[in-house]
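In response to reviewer comment 3 from the previous cycle, which asked for concrete evidence that the modeling workflow produces usable outputs, we include below a single protein chain processed end to end. The sequence was submitted unchanged, and the resulting structure tokens are shown without manual editing.
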Amino acid sequence: MSLFSRKTNSDDSQALKEAYFTASQGQLIRARFRQNKAAMVAAWALTLMILMGFFAPFLSPYSPDIAGRDKEYENGAPQIPKFWDENGFSARPFLYTMERERSIKTNFRWVTTENRDKRRYVELFVRDWEYSYIDIDWDLPGEMFDLNVKALTTDLHLFGISEGGIHLFGTDASGKDIYSRTLHAINTSLAVGTLGVFISFVLALIIGGVAGYFGGWIDSVLQMITDAIRTVPPIPLFMALAAFMPDSWSSETRFFFIASILGLIGWPTLARRIRTHLLTERSQEYVLAAELCGASSSHVIRRHLLPSFTSYIIVDLMITFPYVVRSETALSFIGLGLTDPVNSLGSLMQNVSKADVILNYQWYFIPVLFFIAFVLAFVFVGDGLRDAADPYSKSK
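The workflow returned the following structure tokens.
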């Protein structure tokens, strides 16, 4: 190796060291996170599912409610577009025409068959049912919180078909498109998780921060409240709340009620961790220096104590989010959470518990696969962020 090569390598190494020691905390977290391949794959998968949920109306060829059902294709199998068959090749993807008739072989029940001589071509950017990206119709208890706002209304959809229907994930017993319902269910679960995590996160920061920083009788009172919340069994609580909720409540009211309750019972774990950390850190020299400079208690907690606990807060949030989604899914699965006409992953999974579905309609399990991928993506991203935010991590 020449002297010039050794000098160049030395300069590059020195530049990397300077960049490492002068980088901000956010830059270090991003650099370490990119080195975790599993977390990066999970992050891309999670981003894709979030975009699918947000743009669900545009990506869905049909409305997910009863208005978008296909009466001629109930309990229909998934339809995969083709480019060629025994009749030749086509540059445009197509499906066969489905014909429904009664058969003497099935005791004159309706039987759906495909006519392979009649093609139906898939089209892009079609006009169909109308939707709004901002569609707020809150009919909450009382008149003060009622709100009705619609904006960004359009009827443009990514794809459709020239005649009849196209159902990539098949249809359910009422003829509703499972593909459209799955995308809207992801959006609903994201909304429930976001609202629940936001409520629990704010409560945990306030209660845990105050208890850990001040201590004394304030800490004792807040810990009594925290222990009381933790001892409440969730399933009996939701069974009582389900009996309490009147049938006259709208789907939006049930949505906010379920999400709020999940948030109100999900904060004690993070609050206890924040309290424990602040109890050990409040006597450190940098905290005393901030107090001597005249910093208020809220400033010390917000700008000095909580940032030193960033990695734990991040991983707890990333774990809490799928926990809230799983809780909503479990409640909806047993009929205590969101139900029709709200599309959630839990309400879609209610149908898979039937023996007839397992034997004959296996495509009902497609939303279950999305739910598993959704939870696993959050878990892997949370682990990656925890390792990246850990100042004692060995990765540079």
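The longest strand covers residues 109-138. We consider this sufficient to address the reviewer's concern, and the full set will be provided in the supplementary archive.
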